[in-house]
Every structure is written in C-alpha cells, then in structure tokens.
Design a protein that fits this description.
401 residues, mainly beta, four-stranded antiparallel sheet, 2 helices, 32 strands, globular, disordered N terminus
Length: 401
C-alpha cells in the first residue's frame, strides 16, 4: 500500500522558512479558513494559495495544513471534536474522521469539501490497488471509491456494502474486485470474509479472535491482526499464522509493495491496562513465518511505518526512529528525532507520531509543539517547525497504491 516515489528537494530557502517563520491563516467556526470565508463574502477575495504536498496535523479544535517540504504552516481550519486524519489516495485530499462521519478535506486548497460519508464512529481508511475503502464502525457500512474522482468536487460513485452487524472493523478491496472485510459484533470480533465483486461470499475464516487492523504486502498478500497471531489472505485462501504465545496480539500493521514482510506490533499481556511492548512482529507472507524482534524500547500504535525500499520503521519512546531490515530483523540504523516520551493511558491523547511519505519520515513532538522531517536514508533532520498548539494525529496526501 506504499506509494510510488515522488522526489522532493528541500531548498535552503525552504529550510529557512521552516525554522524562522510560522504563517497562520485563522480558521472559522464552520470549518473554513479565513481565505475561504472571505471568498464567500466578497467577489474580490481569492482562494487560499495551493499547498505543495500538504501535511495535515490535528490539534484540539482543528487542523493545521503544512507545506510538505518546508513544513511552513499554510493554513488553519477550525473543527471541534476529536478528529482523525488519513490519506485519501490522491495528490490533494485527506480523509477526516469526525464525530458525525468521514469528511473529505481538500488539503491542497485548504478547505473542507461538501463530500461526506455520514455515520457514527468512522473508523479505518484503507488505500489499495487504486481504491480507497472506508469502514464506519457504528453502522458496519463499507464505502469503496476511486480517489481520483474526488477532484470533481462531488461524492464519487462507488461500492457500498454493510456488514451483518456493526463492529470496530476494517475492509480492503483487492485489484480483482474482491472485498475482504472483518466479522464481528459490538461485543466480539472473530475473523474475516471475502466477497466477490458482486458481493457474493467466497470464503471466510473465524479463527481470528479480536481481529483488528490490516496491511498488504508485495504480491497482494493481505493480513488482519488477531489476539493470537495474524490471518493471512493470499491467492484466494486464508492461512492462520500463530503467535508464539497463547496471547500474542497484533493489532496494528504496516505493509509495503516493496516487501513480502509485514510489520506489526506485538502485545503478550492480556491483563495489562496499557501494555507498553518492546517487541515488534515481522510476518513473512511468503513463508507464513512470524518473527519477533525486541527493540529495547516501547512504542505506540502511531509508531509504525515503511520506508521507500520496504524498510520497517518504528518510532520508539526513546525518541529514536529504528530502521529495520524486514528480511533479517536487524536494526540497521537508529535516528534520534525527538526527546524520550511515554505512551499515555488514553489512546486519544497526543504522543509523538510517525507519518512516512516517500523518502521522508515526518515525526511530531507534541510536548514541544514541534514537527520534524527526516531523510530516512541519510538520517538527516531536514526541517523542523514549531506550531501554535500541540498536535495529535499526523497525515498527508499520498497518491498511488
């Protein structure tokens, strides 16, 4: 699910802007930026200037839109509530999960669009094979669409499917039109099923207790996490890959088209209020082998990413970005990015967050209101910025699948 590489050159001028200036466009209560509001009230007003390769960071009460190279703060959009952000799958848009459902943000144009997918508890957003799939936990509704159609400004025509019962789930459409979606209820999640392009069930597997999260590897091998390993779907068949422990929960994964190995978290204490694990999992989808690697530092569910060559990336609570060879499990590089931190008990509370795009790892540092850009290959911190408020989630535009 990683994207094709688009080169980005960080110029000296851009770096100077990043560290010396923060330009804020104040937001309005209706979610529009100042420029957008002015445009509504005056024929002489001009739209906000387009933002290049925008990043979007959430804060308590809104969204920051930043230039992806300089990290210059280009605009602020007010949006109350706890909001989450994910790439929509094209060059311009980001999906915002709000209290009332999914909303589409034109990040390049610095404005929320009228495109919405209403429903309680909007959950996972998955990009794969040129399609974007939304899963609404409160209704069990799955929406699949071509993200390129978002540029028309109207809701794209797409596929809609509703699960038998609403649950905290996830779905992904494969390149042949098959739809993999989780199975469960509000009380219990058990596995996954696969539908053909006409929504007729092909196969299912209910040996995945607590199913959560997904990732796709090279060769379109798709895995969902379980409380005792992962459930792999490949070449039309499910395969269960067991964890080495009776309780070995893998709930968050990151995949790459450059590698057959998936990166996952790993928790082994079913009674912990909040387990702060130090081990990560590497799942080889070709051999059905699961390897554990102890990093010697804990991490959070916002710590996992993949580099442009399939590198496994983990942002540790030691403030270091660990660059891991997924084939061997060897930590090849440690890049110091932020200060040491501890994962908060409440999952909605801010903590350093990793977002990867092409050759750049973007890392937030909420305690200092900072955001950093790191070149993954050189390990160099190429830009940093201080923001008006501490940020929580971090994402951006990512085209291609």
């Amino acid at each position: 699910m990683n994207s094709p590489i688009r080169s980005r050159v960080v110029t000296a001028t851009a770096l100077t802007l990043a560290v010396s200036a923060v330009l804020t466009a104040c937001g309005g209560g209706d979610g529009a930026s100042t420029d957008a509001k002015a445009a509504k009230g005056s024929p002489r007003a001009t739209p906000a200037a387009p933002v290049k390769d925008p990043l979007v960071a959430t804060f308590d009460g809104g969204l920051y839109i930043l230039d992806g190279t300089s990290l210059e703060l280009a605009g602020t959009i007010e949006l109350p509530g706890f909001n989450r952000v994910n790439p929509a799958g094209d060059d311009d848009h980001v999906i915002v999960s709000t209290d009332s459902g999914f909303r589409v943000l034109d990040a390049t144009g610095q404005s929320l669009t009228d495109i919405t997918y209403q429903g309680a508890k909007p959950g996972h957003v998955v990009r794969h094979a040129g399609r974007t799939t939304l899963f609404t936990d409160g209704t069990g509704e799955v929406n699949v669409f071509d993200p390129a159609a978002l540029s028309r400004g109207t809701k794209p025509a797409g596929r809609t499917y509703t699960t038998a019962e609403a649950h905290h789930g996830v779905a992904i459409e494969l390149s042949n039109g098959e739809l993999l979606t989780t199975l469960g209820t509000e009380e219990k999640r058990t596995g996954a099923l696969v539908l053909d392009k006409n929504d007729k069930e092909i196969t299912r597997n209910e040996k995945c207790p607590g199913v959560h999260g997904e990732a796709a590897a090279r060769g379109e091998a798709v895995a969902v996490g379980c409380e005792d390993g992962v459930l792999l779907y490949k070449d039309g068949e499910f395969t269960k890959i067991d964890a080495p422990d009776d309780y070995g929960r893998i709930g968050n994964q990151a995949g790459s088209e450059e590698s057959p190995v998936l990166l996952g978290d790993y928790k082994s204490d079913p009674d912990a209020e909040l387990e702060r694990p130090t081990r990560i999992s590497l799942i080889d989808t070709e051999t059905a082998n699961l390897r554990l690697v102890d990093l010697g530092t804990s991490y959070s569910f916002r710590s996992l990413g993949r580099g442009p060559h399939g590198e496994a990336l983990v942002l540790g609570t030691d403030g270091t970005l660990h660059v891991i060879d997924p084939e061997t499990g060897k930590v090849e590089k440690k890049i110091g990015v932020v200060g040491a931190w501890q994962e908060p008990l409440d999952w909605q509370q801010p903590r350093p967050t990793l977002f990867v795009r092409d050759h750049t790892a973007y890392v937030s540092e909420p305690g200092k209101r900072k955001l950093h850009a790191v070149d993954i290959e050189s390990g160099e911190k190429v830009a940093s910025v201080t923001l008006p408020k501490s940020t929580n989630e971090l994402s951006g535009v990512v085209s291609g699948h």
